[in-house]
Amino acid sequence: MLVLDAAAVEVTDKLRDGRVESVLLKGPSVARWVYAEEEFRPYSDLDLLVAPGDLRRSLRVLSGLGFERVHSDAHAELLLRHHDQVTVDLHRLIVGVGVRPEEAWAALTAETEPLALRGGEVAMLSQAGRTLHVVLHAAQHGAGDAKPLQDLAQALERLPEEAWGDAARLALRLHAEAAFLTGLRLLPAGREVAGSTGVAEARSVEAALRAGTPPPTALGLYRFFQTPGAGPRARLLAGELFPSAAFMRAWMPLARRGPGGLAAAYVWRPVWLLLRLAPALLAWQRARRAAR
Question: Considering the entire predicted model, what is its pTM?
Answer without folding.
Answer: 0.90
